[in-house]
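pls design
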Protein backbone atom coordinates (compact mmCIF):
# COMPACT_ATOMS: atom_id res chain seq x y z
CA UNK A 1 0.00 0.00 0.00
CA UNK A 2 1.24 3.54 -0.74
CA UNK A 3 0.44 6.26 1.76
CA UNK A 4 0.09 9.83 0.53
CA UNK A 5 2.11 12.21 2.69
CA UNK A 6 -0.03 13.59 5.50
CA UNK A 7 -2.92 11.27 4.64
CA UNK A 8 -2.51 8.98 7.63
CA UNK A 9 -1.60 9.68 11.26
CA UNK A 10 1.88 8.53 12.29
CA UNK A 11 1.95 4.88 13.34
CA UNK A 12 2.38 4.22 17.08
CA UNK A 13 3.54 1.11 18.99
CA UNK A 14 -0.07 0.36 20.08
CA UNK A 15 -1.09 0.52 16.39
CA UNK A 16 1.54 -2.13 15.60
CA UNK A 17 0.48 -4.28 18.58
CA UNK A 18 -3.15 -4.08 17.40
CA UNK A 19 -2.17 -5.57 14.04
CA UNK A 20 -1.65 -9.02 15.63
CA UNK A 21 -3.19 -11.58 13.27
CA UNK A 22 -4.24 -8.86 10.82
CA UNK A 23 -2.81 -7.42 7.61
CA UNK A 24 0.96 -8.09 7.40
CA UNK A 25 3.11 -5.38 8.98
CA UNK A 26 5.63 -4.02 6.47
CA UNK A 27 9.03 -3.07 7.92
CA UNK A 28 12.44 -2.11 6.53
CA UNK A 29 15.59 -0.61 7.95
CA UNK A 30 16.83 2.89 7.02
CA UNK A 31 19.91 4.86 8.03
CA UNK A 32 19.69 8.11 6.03
CA UNK A 33 17.11 10.82 5.35
CA UNK A 34 16.61 10.14 1.59
CA UNK A 35 16.14 6.40 2.14
CA UNK A 36 13.79 7.06 5.08
CA UNK A 37 11.65 9.25 2.79
CA UNK A 38 11.29 6.44 0.23
CA UNK A 39 10.67 3.71 2.81
CA UNK A 40 8.19 5.86 4.74
CA UNK A 41 5.81 5.96 1.76
CA UNK A 42 5.40 2.17 1.83
CA UNK A 43 6.15 0.87 5.32
CA UNK A 44 4.41 0.73 8.70
CA UNK A 45 7.64 0.58 10.69
CA UNK A 46 11.19 1.76 9.98
CA UNK A 47 14.06 0.34 12.02
CA UNK A 48 17.27 2.27 12.52
CA UNK A 49 19.10 -1.01 12.99
CA UNK A 50 22.57 -1.47 14.40
CA UNK A 51 23.17 -3.19 11.04
CA UNK A 52 24.14 0.41 10.18
CA UNK A 53 27.65 -0.50 11.33
CA UNK A 54 28.03 -3.18 8.65
CA UNK A 55 25.93 -1.51 5.95
CA UNK A 56 27.17 2.09 6.18
CA UNK A 57 30.48 1.93 8.04
CA UNK A 58 32.12 -1.26 6.76
CA UNK A 59 32.33 -2.91 10.19
CA UNK A 60 32.68 -6.72 10.27
CA UNK A 61 29.75 -7.13 12.70
CA UNK A 62 27.42 -5.00 14.85
CA UNK A 63 29.59 -5.06 17.98
CA UNK A 64 31.48 -1.88 17.10
CA UNK A 65 28.33 0.23 16.82
CA UNK A 66 28.12 3.04 19.39
CA UNK A 67 25.37 5.18 20.91
CA UNK A 68 26.83 8.14 18.97
CA UNK A 69 26.42 6.31 15.66
CA UNK A 70 22.84 5.34 16.51
CA UNK A 71 21.99 8.93 17.48
CA UNK A 72 23.52 10.37 14.29
CA UNK A 73 21.65 7.97 11.99
CA UNK A 74 18.49 8.11 14.12
CA UNK A 75 18.30 11.89 13.72
CA UNK A 76 18.81 11.56 9.96
CA UNK A 77 16.04 8.96 9.61
CA UNK A 78 13.64 10.96 11.80
CA UNK A 79 13.90 13.90 9.36
CA UNK A 80 12.69 11.62 6.55
CA UNK A 81 9.65 10.09 8.26
CA UNK A 82 6.08 11.39 8.23
CA UNK A 83 4.07 8.19 8.65
CA UNK A 84 5.95 5.07 9.75
CA UNK A 85 6.83 4.20 13.34
CA UNK A 86 10.55 4.72 13.94
CA UNK A 87 12.22 2.06 16.10
CA UNK A 88 15.90 2.37 17.02
CA UNK A 89 18.32 -0.35 18.14
CA UNK A 90 20.09 -0.22 21.48
CA UNK A 91 23.68 -1.00 20.45
CA UNK A 92 25.88 -3.71 21.96
CA UNK A 93 27.02 -2.82 25.47
CA UNK A 94 24.36 -0.14 26.00
CA UNK A 95 21.77 -2.26 27.85
CA UNK A 96 23.05 -5.70 28.96
CA UNK A 97 24.63 -4.58 32.24
CA UNK A 98 21.42 -3.76 34.14
CA UNK A 99 17.83 -2.61 33.62
CA UNK A 100 18.92 0.83 34.86
CA UNK A 101 21.66 1.11 32.24
CA UNK A 102 19.17 -0.02 29.59
CA UNK A 103 16.57 2.59 30.59
CA UNK A 104 19.17 5.36 30.74
CA UNK A 105 20.42 4.66 27.21
CA UNK A 106 16.94 3.98 25.82
CA UNK A 107 15.86 7.40 27.16
CA UNK A 108 18.87 9.05 25.48
CA UNK A 109 18.02 7.44 22.13
CA UNK A 110 14.36 8.49 22.41
CA UNK A 111 15.20 12.07 23.46
CA UNK A 112 17.98 12.66 20.96
CA UNK A 113 16.39 11.05 17.89
CA UNK A 114 12.62 11.31 18.33
CA UNK A 115 12.20 7.54 17.87
CA UNK A 116 8.89 6.00 18.94
CA UNK A 117 10.41 2.84 20.43
CA UNK A 118 13.66 0.97 21.02
CA UNK A 119 14.66 -2.57 20.06
CA UNK A 120 16.96 -4.84 22.05
CA UNK A 121 18.20 -8.39 21.55
CA UNK A 122 17.58 -11.31 23.92
CA UNK A 123 14.87 -13.57 25.32
CA UNK A 124 14.26 -14.89 28.84
CA UNK A 125 17.42 -13.30 30.27
CA UNK A 126 16.44 -9.84 28.96
CA UNK A 127 12.78 -10.04 30.06
CA UNK A 128 13.34 -8.17 33.37
CA UNK A 129 15.10 -5.39 31.42
CA UNK A 130 12.27 -5.15 28.90
CA UNK A 131 9.72 -4.95 31.77
CA UNK A 132 11.76 -2.23 33.49
CA UNK A 133 11.94 -0.05 30.37
CA UNK A 134 8.30 -0.58 29.35
CA UNK A 135 7.02 0.23 32.86
CA UNK A 136 8.86 3.56 32.60
CA UNK A 137 7.12 4.58 29.40
CA UNK A 138 9.40 3.45 26.59
CA UNK A 139 7.92 0.94 24.11
CA UNK A 140 10.22 -1.99 23.40
CA UNK A 141 10.48 -4.30 20.41
CA UNK A 142 12.16 -7.63 21.23
CA UNK A 143 14.53 -9.63 19.03
CA UNK A 144 14.90 -13.41 19.39
CA UNK A 145 16.34 -16.31 17.41
CA UNK A 146 19.59 -15.25 15.77
CA UNK A 147 20.73 -12.25 17.80
CA UNK A 148 23.68 -10.77 15.85
CA UNK A 149 25.19 -8.96 18.84
CA UNK A 150 25.87 -12.44 20.32
CA UNK A 151 27.64 -13.68 17.17
CA UNK A 152 30.77 -14.67 19.12
CA UNK A 153 28.89 -16.65 21.75
CA UNK A 154 26.71 -18.30 19.08
CA UNK A 155 29.70 -19.22 16.91
CA UNK A 156 28.43 -17.46 13.79
CA UNK A 157 25.23 -16.43 12.02
CA UNK A 158 23.69 -19.91 12.02
CA UNK A 159 19.98 -20.80 11.97
CA UNK A 160 18.66 -20.93 15.56
CA UNK A 161 15.95 -23.12 17.01
CA UNK A 162 16.52 -26.40 15.18
CA UNK A 163 15.84 -29.60 17.14
CA UNK A 164 16.12 -29.34 20.92
CA UNK A 165 16.82 -25.57 20.79
CA UNK A 166 13.31 -24.86 19.48
CA UNK A 167 11.78 -25.00 22.97
CA UNK A 168 14.26 -22.43 24.30
CA UNK A 169 13.52 -20.02 21.44
CA UNK A 170 9.77 -20.44 22.05
CA UNK A 171 10.33 -19.60 25.72
CA UNK A 172 12.34 -16.55 24.67
CA UNK A 173 9.42 -15.29 22.57
CA UNK A 174 6.94 -15.93 25.38
CA UNK A 175 9.14 -14.14 27.93
CA UNK A 176 9.58 -11.09 25.70
CA UNK A 177 5.81 -10.89 25.13
CA UNK A 178 5.00 -11.33 28.82
CA UNK A 179 7.53 -8.64 29.74
CA UNK A 180 5.46 -6.11 27.76
CA UNK A 181 7.18 -5.77 24.39
CA UNK A 182 4.79 -4.50 21.70
CA UNK A 183 6.28 -6.75 19.00
CA UNK A 184 9.22 -9.09 18.48
CA UNK A 185 11.65 -9.68 15.63
CA UNK A 186 12.22 -13.40 14.98
CA UNK A 187 15.45 -13.85 13.02
CA UNK A 188 16.72 -16.92 11.15
CA UNK A 189 14.61 -19.66 12.73
CA UNK A 190 12.82 -22.59 11.01
CA UNK A 191 9.48 -21.84 9.38
CA UNK A 192 7.65 -24.32 11.63
CA UNK A 193 9.00 -22.68 14.81
CA UNK A 194 8.12 -19.18 13.58
CA UNK A 195 4.56 -20.38 12.91
CA UNK A 196 4.32 -21.91 16.40
CA UNK A 197 5.61 -18.73 18.06
CA UNK A 198 3.27 -16.55 15.98
CA UNK A 199 0.21 -18.55 16.99
CA UNK A 200 1.39 -18.83 20.61
CA UNK A 201 2.19 -15.25 21.67
CA UNK A 202 -0.15 -12.27 21.80
CA UNK A 203 2.20 -9.71 20.20
CA UNK A 204 3.07 -9.43 16.49
CA UNK A 205 6.07 -11.40 15.25
CA UNK A 206 8.20 -9.66 12.63
CA UNK A 207 10.11 -12.24 10.62
CA UNK A 208 13.51 -12.03 8.96
CA UNK A 209 14.50 -15.44 7.67
CA UNK A 210 11.55 -16.88 9.61
CA UNK A 211 8.13 -17.50 7.98
CA UNK A 212 5.49 -15.94 5.73
CA UNK A 213 3.12 -16.74 8.61
CA UNK A 214 4.72 -14.07 10.82
CA UNK A 215 2.59 -11.00 11.52
CA UNK A 216 5.06 -8.88 9.56
CA UNK A 217 8.37 -8.96 7.69
CA UNK A 218 11.57 -6.93 7.88
CA UNK A 219 14.69 -6.81 5.70
CA UNK A 220 17.82 -4.69 5.70
CA UNK A 221 17.00 -2.17 2.98
CA UNK A 222 20.44 -2.26 1.35
CA UNK A 223 20.19 -6.07 1.09
CA UNK A 224 16.84 -6.03 -0.72
CA UNK A 225 18.03 -3.23 -3.01
CA UNK A 226 21.10 -5.27 -4.02
CA UNK A 227 23.65 -2.77 -2.73
CA UNK A 228 26.06 -5.62 -2.01
CA UNK A 229 26.98 -7.58 -5.12
CA UNK A 230 29.08 -10.21 -3.37
CA UNK A 231 26.86 -11.27 -0.47
CA UNK A 232 23.20 -12.40 -0.29
CA UNK A 233 21.82 -14.35 2.69
CA UNK A 234 19.27 -17.06 1.73
CA UNK A 235 16.44 -15.14 3.39
CA UNK A 236 17.01 -11.96 1.36
CA UNK A 237 15.10 -11.40 -1.86
CA UNK A 238 16.70 -8.81 -4.13
CA UNK A 239 14.14 -6.41 -5.56
CA UNK A 240 16.80 -4.34 -7.38
CA UNK A 241 20.47 -4.48 -8.29
CA UNK A 242 21.61 -1.02 -7.28
CA UNK A 243 25.26 -2.01 -6.82
CA UNK A 244 25.43 -3.07 -10.49
CA UNK A 245 23.58 0.08 -11.58
CA UNK A 246 25.94 2.28 -9.54
CA UNK A 247 29.00 0.48 -10.92
CA UNK A 248 27.80 1.01 -14.51
CA UNK A 249 27.02 4.69 -13.86
CA UNK A 250 30.42 5.38 -12.29
CA UNK A 251 32.20 3.55 -15.12
CA UNK A 252 30.28 5.61 -17.73
CA UNK A 253 31.16 8.86 -15.92
CA UNK A 254 34.85 7.91 -15.69
CA UNK A 255 34.99 7.07 -19.42
CA UNK A 256 33.30 10.33 -20.42
CA UNK A 257 35.62 12.44 -18.27
CA UNK A 258 38.66 10.73 -19.76
CA UNK A 259 37.34 11.31 -23.29
CA UNK A 260 36.31 14.94 -22.51
CA UNK A 261 32.67 14.10 -23.33
CA UNK A 262 31.59 15.32 -19.92
CA UNK A 263 30.80 18.09 -19.23
CA UNK A 264 29.13 18.86 -22.57
CA UNK A 265 27.67 22.24 -23.58
CA UNK A 266 24.45 21.63 -21.60
CA UNK A 267 26.40 21.31 -18.34
CA UNK A 268 28.58 24.44 -18.65
CA UNK A 269 27.76 28.15 -18.29
CA UNK A 270 27.79 30.61 -21.18
CA UNK A 271 29.37 34.07 -20.86
CA UNK A 272 26.63 36.26 -22.38
CA UNK A 273 23.52 35.32 -20.36
CA UNK A 274 25.24 35.55 -16.99
CA UNK A 275 27.01 38.92 -17.70
CA UNK A 276 23.86 40.45 -19.27
CA UNK A 277 22.02 39.88 -15.97
CA UNK A 278 24.97 41.07 -13.97
CA UNK A 279 25.35 37.66 -12.35
O1 LIG B 1 19.95 -4.25 12.89
C1 LIG B 1 19.08 -4.66 12.10
O2 LIG B 1 18.99 -4.25 10.94
C2 LIG B 1 18.14 -5.66 12.60
C3 LIG B 1 17.25 -6.31 11.59
C4 LIG B 1 18.02 -7.30 10.84
C5 LIG B 1 16.05 -6.89 12.24
O3 LIG B 1 18.12 -5.95 13.75
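designed seq:
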Amino acid sequence: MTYAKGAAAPVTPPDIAARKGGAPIVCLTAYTTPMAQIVDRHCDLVLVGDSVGMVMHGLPDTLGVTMEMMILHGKAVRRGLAHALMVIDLPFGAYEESPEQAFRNAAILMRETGAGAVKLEGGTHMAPTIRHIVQRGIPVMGHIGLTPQSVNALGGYKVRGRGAEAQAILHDAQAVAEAGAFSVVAEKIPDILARRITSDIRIPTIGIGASAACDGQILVVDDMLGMFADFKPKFVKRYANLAADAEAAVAAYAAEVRERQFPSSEHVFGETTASAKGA
